[in-house]
Each structure stands twice: as C-alpha cells, then as structure tokens.
Amino acid sequence: MTGKADQTTFLCITSFFKGEDFLRSCKALGNKVLLITSKGLEHKKWPRESIDEIFYMQEKREGVWNMDDLISGLAFLMRNQKIDRIVALDDFDVEKATMVREHFRIPGMGQTTGRYFRDKLAMRMKAAESNIPVPAFTPLFNNSDIDEYIKRVSAPWLIKPRSEASATGIRKIFSNEELWSVLESLGDRRHEYLLEKFAPGDVYHVDSLSVDGKIVFKQASQYLSTPMDVAHGHGIFRSITLKMDSPDAIGLMAINEEVLKAFGMRFSASHSEYIKSRQTGKFYFLETASRVGGAHLAEMVFFATGINLWKEWAVIEDAMAKGKPYKLPKVKNEYAGIVVSLCRFQYPDSSCFTDHEICWQLKKEYHIGHIVKSDCQERVLELLNAHTRRIQIDFHAST
Predict the structure, then answer these.
(1) DSSP code of 355?
(2) CB 203 within 8 A of CB 227
(3) pLDDT at 350 (0 to 100)
(4) pLDDT surpassing 90 at residue 123
(5) Which of 175, 291, 300, 381 has the fewest Cβ atoms nearer than 10 Å?
(6) How confident is the model at residue 231 (pLDDT cuts 50, 70, 90)?
(7) What pLDDT score does 2 carry?
C-alpha cells in the first residue's frame, strides 16, 4: 500500500450512477479517490468505503453541469488538494474531464482528442480523413452543402445528435421535404446534429483496453437487436460475443485497430460500434467512446472472458500514473449473451428461466433480463432466442 505522502489522487467524474468496480479497484491499488457526481445521485449505492470524498454538482439538465461552477469549485479544492489524474466514467463526462485537464494542465486526454471519442461529427471527419470507411455524412452548418449532399446521397438518411450516447435522439428521414421540415424544427440547435446515409446492416461492437497506444484486450460482439431498433422500435435488447477467429471478428479487429490508432487512443477502456453493410458486406465505422460499454455489456464481456473491464481500466490508469508496467490477467475463451427488456411488471418473477447457463440477472424495476454463458456459442444463441420469445409473450412492455 502506498504511503499517504506519496498517494496518487484520482478525481472521477460521472453524471450517472456507474463505475463502482472502477472506484473499488482504484482505491484497492492504494490511491486517494475523489468523486464528483450529480446532486440527484447523492443517495445511490456508491461504494463509499472506496471513496475518500464525494462532491455534488447541480444539473442544468440530465448529464449537463455548469462548467464555470465546476472549474471554480475545483480551483478552490486544489488549493489544498493535489489532483494527479482525472477519469470520466461516462460518455457525458468526457468533455467535462478534457476541459478540466486542459485548464489545470493535468495529464491525460485533452479536448481535441476527446472530441473524437464524444462528438459524432468529429469522429466521422477524422475517420474519413484516415481512410476508414464511414457511411456518407454531412454537417448541418451550411444550406448549400446540405443541398449538394442530398443530390449526391439518396434517402433514407439519419439525423444524429453529435453528443448524445447510443441511439438517443436519432431520427430517420425519408424525403427532402421531411428533412428541411426537421431542420427547421431544430432551429438554433441545428449545428448540434449531423446527417448520415441510412445503410441497412448488422451492427457490432468491440470492447477494448489500450495501454501505451496498443490494444491489449479486445472482444468483438454482435447486437442481435440494434440499439436503434430497441430505442425506436421498442424491441428487446440482445447481444452475443463472437468467435474471435471468425471472419467477422477478424474484420472488426482490423478496423477497430485503425480507428483507435487514428483517433489517438493512448490508454483507457473503449467501446466502439460498426455496421456491416448488407449491400457490400463491408464494415463501416459508426462511433466510439473512451469508456466501458453501457447496457451491462461489461458484464457480458466478463462472463465470456473473465476480464472485468471496469477493474482493469482502473489498473491501467494506476499503472500509467505511476509509470508501472501493466499485465492483462489470463483471458478465458467462452461465449456469453445478454437479453434485456422493459417489463410490464414492477418486480418480474423470472423463476421460469431455469437454464443452468444463466449467470447474471438484472435487478431493476420494470425491467427483465439476464446473461447466459457457455463454451458453445451456438448454445448461447439458442438460449437467447428461446428466452427472447418467452419475454416477448410473458413480460415485454413498450414505452
């Protein structure tokens, strides 16, 4: 255990309740752990035994704080408290962390690189500049550019918020008239969106850990129900880990390595999404984030590989702060899949699911879901399909 005089101090920032394993791991490594979170999350079950101090910010809206207040508060705190490293635990906090690092000159990802892991327009422009395939897109700054784009790229298109997470706020557009109507409705916020070609295909994700600019762990998985289908079609969320020697996994590993290298990833967890075009069979980059994947995908990866992404991310941050080597634990080669649905019952009785492959169950009001694991991917898929059918009939609720 490091002595208090030499203690490295980590400031973790999150406007959502998550990252408990990161906080525990960071503290167990002998660090001082500070947490800044939203006032509305004060009574959540934070691992308080692993946090030295918690500070709260009022939200302007979900995930949004007054950055002047954050900077001023930290400036006061830092008169007597040195901060060595800053970690953003959620997508919405990447920009907060990069701004704070830049202002106080704390090592780590700065605002320019941070944009590539947060701003969907910056991501696409950097990918295109690096010759990484992306669906045809355009910013929404200039009317002439938009006119040129819609003449060149046929509908349907997607209007995407540049800074939302996952499929939040995405709208599908089928005609020029509809597009201009939607742009008019966005008003002064139009610049916060982009326009992209909608290309049907299968959507995949790669969950990675990087150290010194090199990927040391990766797991490729396929969404069996895409986040957009779930968000807009009220579907049931499902994902399954791939066989790592399969052609799809090999293709995903290649494009994922290109993306993280081009975007300047040095050390962190990352969650990246790709689409395989049904028309061309080619992988296209969709988005990436310098954090652990949400929707309990970290648990799915853990049961397939034995790697706790939150814990290992903390170990990597600790190693980078202290100039120590990082060693990845032994990786298992099994398969896992997750199914999660909104539920019409507040506390669903899931006792009808009795398969021994079930290794984790979601405990959340008006939700039902679990993870299954096996040394056979076909068995995982069989279980996911059977369980999805039962959830659809007996439990599923649409918003």
Answers:
(1) -
(2) yes
(3) 93
(4) yes
(5) 175
(6) low
(7) 43
Q: Residue with structure tokens 């590539």?
A: 116
pLDDT computed for residue 199 by the predictor: 85
Any residues with CB less than 8 A from the CB of 13 and at least 6 apart, and which? 35, 36, 37, 86, 87, 88, 89, 93, 96, 97, 100
Classify each residue of 286-316 as buried b or exposed e, where b means 16 or more C-beta atoms within 10 Å of its C-beta.
bbbbbbbbbbbbbbbbbbbbebbbbbbbbbb
Taking CA atoms, 39 is separated from 20, 53, 62, 65, 340, in Å, by 17, 14, 11, 10, 28
The dihedrals phi and psi of 11, each to the nearest 5 degrees, come to -105, 115
d(CA 10, CA 125) in angstroms, rounded, equals 32
Orientation angle between helical segments 309-322 and 20-28, nearest 10 degrees: 40
Which is it for strands 268-277 and 237-241: parallel, antiparallel or unpaired?
unpaired
Distances (CA, A) of 37 to 43, 106, 313, 351, 355: 11, 19, 19, 36, 39
CB 59 within 8 A of CB 38: yes
Cβ atoms of 271 and 215 within 8 Å: the answer is no
Q: Can you read off the two tokens belonging to residue 338?
A: 């997750």
- State the pLDDT at residue 377: 97
pLDDT attached to residue 397? 86
Contact 341, 367 (CB under 8 A): yes
Report whether 67 contacts 93 (CB < 8 A): no
pLDDT of 234 higher than 70: no
In the chain, which residue ranges form alpha helices assigned H by DSSP? 20-28, 67-77, 94-104, 111-116, 120-129, 143-152, 176-186, 227-233, 247-263, 297-305, 309-322, 377-394
Share of the chain above pLDDT 70, in %: 95
Q: H or E segment at 359?
A: strand 358-361
Out of 134-138, 166-170, 279-283, 327-331, which region has the weakest mean confidence (pLDDT)? 166-170
pLDDT above 70 (res 154): yes
